[in-house]
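Hi C.,

You asked whether I'd gotten around to modeling the 166-residue construct. I have! Everything is below, sequence then structure, no commentary in between.
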Amino acid sequence: MEIRNRATGEIISQRQYLELNPGVNLPRIWTAETLNAIGYDMVIALAPEGLPSSSTREWYRDGVKQDANGNWVYNWIERNIYNDIPGGATQAEQEAEHLAREERALAEGARNMRNDRLRLSDWIVLKAQENGEPVPEDWKAYRKALRDVPAQAGFPRNIVWPNMPN
Protein backbone atom coordinates (compact mmCIF):
# COMPACT_ATOMS: atom_id res chain seq x y z
CA MET A 1 0.00 0.00 0.00
CA GLU A 2 1.19 3.50 -0.78
CA ILE A 3 0.45 6.51 1.38
CA ARG A 4 0.70 10.27 0.83
CA ASN A 5 2.15 12.63 3.41
CA ARG A 6 -0.38 15.44 3.82
CA ALA A 7 2.28 17.97 4.77
CA THR A 8 4.82 17.32 2.00
CA GLY A 9 2.87 15.43 -0.68
CA GLU A 10 5.55 12.72 -0.65
CA ILE A 11 4.38 9.25 -1.65
CA ILE A 12 5.90 6.29 0.17
CA SER A 13 4.96 2.70 0.86
CA GLN A 14 3.63 1.48 4.16
CA ARG A 15 6.88 -0.48 4.60
CA GLN A 16 8.97 2.64 3.98
CA TYR A 17 6.99 4.49 6.65
CA LEU A 18 7.70 1.71 9.15
CA GLU A 19 11.41 1.71 8.24
CA LEU A 20 11.59 5.50 8.67
CA ASN A 21 9.72 5.34 12.00
CA PRO A 22 11.01 2.22 13.77
CA GLY A 23 9.79 3.28 17.22
CA VAL A 24 6.19 3.84 16.19
CA ASN A 25 3.80 1.06 17.19
CA LEU A 26 0.98 0.75 14.64
CA PRO A 27 -1.72 -1.87 14.11
CA ARG A 28 -1.13 -4.56 11.52
CA ILE A 29 -4.03 -3.35 9.39
CA TRP A 30 -4.05 0.38 8.84
CA THR A 31 -7.44 2.04 8.82
CA ALA A 32 -8.40 5.57 7.81
CA GLU A 33 -8.10 6.52 11.49
CA THR A 34 -4.55 5.15 11.65
CA LEU A 35 -3.53 7.12 8.57
CA ASN A 36 -5.24 10.25 9.90
CA ALA A 37 -3.34 9.96 13.18
CA ILE A 38 0.05 9.89 11.40
CA GLY A 39 -0.88 12.62 8.88
CA TYR A 40 -1.12 10.46 5.77
CA ASP A 41 -3.74 9.56 3.19
CA MET A 42 -4.13 6.22 1.46
CA VAL A 43 -3.31 6.16 -2.25
CA ILE A 44 -5.79 4.01 -4.16
CA ALA A 45 -4.06 1.98 -6.85
CA LEU A 46 -6.42 2.39 -9.79
CA ALA A 47 -5.42 1.07 -13.21
CA PRO A 48 -5.72 3.35 -16.23
CA GLU A 49 -9.05 3.31 -18.01
CA GLY A 50 -8.94 1.49 -21.32
CA LEU A 51 -6.09 0.79 -23.67
CA PRO A 52 -3.59 3.34 -24.93
CA SER A 53 -4.66 5.12 -28.12
CA SER A 54 -2.08 3.23 -30.21
CA SER A 55 0.14 0.18 -29.94
CA THR A 56 3.11 2.59 -30.06
CA ARG A 57 1.98 4.28 -26.84
CA GLU A 58 1.82 3.08 -23.24
CA TRP A 59 0.34 4.11 -19.94
CA TYR A 60 2.85 5.66 -17.55
CA ARG A 61 2.19 6.33 -13.90
CA ASP A 62 2.84 9.98 -13.19
CA GLY A 63 2.40 10.44 -9.47
CA VAL A 64 -1.00 10.79 -7.87
CA LYS A 65 -4.00 13.09 -8.10
CA GLN A 66 -7.24 13.62 -6.25
CA ASP A 67 -10.36 12.19 -7.81
CA ALA A 68 -13.82 13.77 -7.71
CA ASN A 69 -14.42 12.24 -4.26
CA GLY A 70 -11.21 13.64 -2.77
CA ASN A 71 -9.41 10.29 -2.78
CA TRP A 72 -5.76 10.13 -3.81
CA VAL A 73 -5.41 7.84 -6.82
CA TYR A 74 -2.71 6.95 -9.34
CA ASN A 75 -2.36 9.51 -12.13
CA TRP A 76 -1.83 7.93 -15.54
CA ILE A 77 -0.58 9.62 -18.70
CA GLU A 78 -0.03 8.24 -22.15
CA ARG A 79 3.45 8.40 -23.62
CA ASN A 80 5.28 7.17 -26.69
CA ILE A 81 7.07 3.85 -26.40
CA TYR A 82 9.79 5.06 -28.75
CA ASN A 83 12.05 8.10 -28.65
CA ASP A 84 14.74 9.36 -31.00
CA ILE A 85 18.03 7.54 -30.52
CA PRO A 86 20.96 9.95 -30.91
CA GLY A 87 22.88 8.81 -33.97
CA GLY A 88 20.29 6.11 -34.62
CA ALA A 89 16.69 5.58 -35.57
CA THR A 90 14.17 8.36 -35.12
CA GLN A 91 10.95 7.92 -33.19
CA ALA A 92 9.01 7.90 -36.48
CA GLU A 93 11.25 5.19 -37.97
CA GLN A 94 10.90 3.01 -34.87
CA GLU A 95 7.13 3.45 -34.83
CA ALA A 96 6.90 2.59 -38.54
CA GLU A 97 8.88 -0.62 -37.97
CA HIS A 98 6.74 -1.47 -34.96
CA LEU A 99 3.53 -1.03 -36.97
CA ALA A 100 4.98 -3.06 -39.86
CA ARG A 101 5.84 -5.93 -37.47
CA GLU A 102 2.36 -5.71 -35.98
CA GLU A 103 0.78 -5.79 -39.45
CA ARG A 104 2.86 -8.85 -40.43
CA ALA A 105 1.87 -10.66 -37.24
CA LEU A 106 -1.82 -9.86 -37.77
CA ALA A 107 -1.61 -11.06 -41.38
CA GLU A 108 0.08 -14.29 -40.31
CA GLY A 109 -2.59 -14.90 -37.67
CA ALA A 110 -5.38 -14.23 -40.17
CA ARG A 111 -3.82 -16.56 -42.75
CA ASN A 112 -3.47 -19.28 -40.10
CA MET A 113 -7.15 -18.86 -39.20
CA ARG A 114 -8.09 -18.98 -42.88
CA ASN A 115 -5.98 -22.14 -43.36
CA ASP A 116 -7.63 -23.77 -40.35
CA ARG A 117 -11.06 -23.04 -41.81
CA LEU A 118 -9.98 -24.49 -45.15
CA ARG A 119 -8.71 -27.64 -43.38
CA LEU A 120 -12.01 -27.94 -41.54
CA SER A 121 -13.81 -27.97 -44.88
CA ASP A 122 -11.46 -30.44 -46.61
CA TRP A 123 -13.80 -33.28 -45.71
CA ILE A 124 -16.45 -32.04 -48.14
CA VAL A 125 -13.96 -32.09 -51.02
CA LEU A 126 -12.69 -35.56 -50.08
CA LYS A 127 -16.23 -36.89 -49.70
CA ALA A 128 -17.16 -35.57 -53.17
CA GLN A 129 -14.01 -37.10 -54.71
CA GLU A 130 -14.60 -40.47 -53.02
CA ASN A 131 -18.17 -40.55 -54.34
CA GLY A 132 -17.15 -39.37 -57.80
CA GLU A 133 -19.39 -36.33 -57.41
CA PRO A 134 -18.62 -32.63 -57.91
CA VAL A 135 -18.00 -30.46 -54.89
CA PRO A 136 -21.26 -28.65 -54.04
CA GLU A 137 -21.30 -25.08 -55.39
CA ASP A 138 -21.91 -23.47 -51.99
CA TRP A 139 -18.81 -25.23 -50.62
CA LYS A 140 -16.77 -24.20 -53.65
CA ALA A 141 -17.84 -20.59 -53.14
CA TYR A 142 -17.06 -20.79 -49.41
CA ARG A 143 -13.57 -22.19 -49.98
CA LYS A 144 -12.86 -19.62 -52.69
CA ALA A 145 -13.98 -16.82 -50.36
CA LEU A 146 -11.60 -18.17 -47.72
CA ARG A 147 -8.71 -18.23 -50.20
CA ASP A 148 -9.59 -14.64 -51.18
CA VAL A 149 -9.53 -13.32 -47.59
CA PRO A 150 -6.01 -11.79 -47.94
CA ALA A 151 -7.25 -9.78 -50.94
CA GLN A 152 -9.94 -8.01 -48.88
CA ALA A 153 -9.48 -4.26 -48.58
CA GLY A 154 -9.35 -4.33 -44.75
CA PHE A 155 -6.95 -7.27 -44.46
CA PRO A 156 -5.55 -8.06 -41.93
CA ARG A 157 -7.28 -5.73 -39.46
CA ASN A 158 -10.86 -5.82 -40.76
CA ILE A 159 -11.82 -9.17 -42.19
CA VAL A 160 -15.26 -10.28 -43.28
CA TRP A 161 -15.22 -14.05 -42.82
CA PRO A 162 -17.48 -16.07 -45.10
CA ASN A 163 -20.15 -18.25 -43.49
CA MET A 164 -19.72 -22.01 -43.71
CA PRO A 165 -22.52 -23.64 -45.70
CA ASN A 166 -25.02 -25.87 -43.88
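If it helps when you're writing up: The mean pLDDT is 96.

Thanks,
B.
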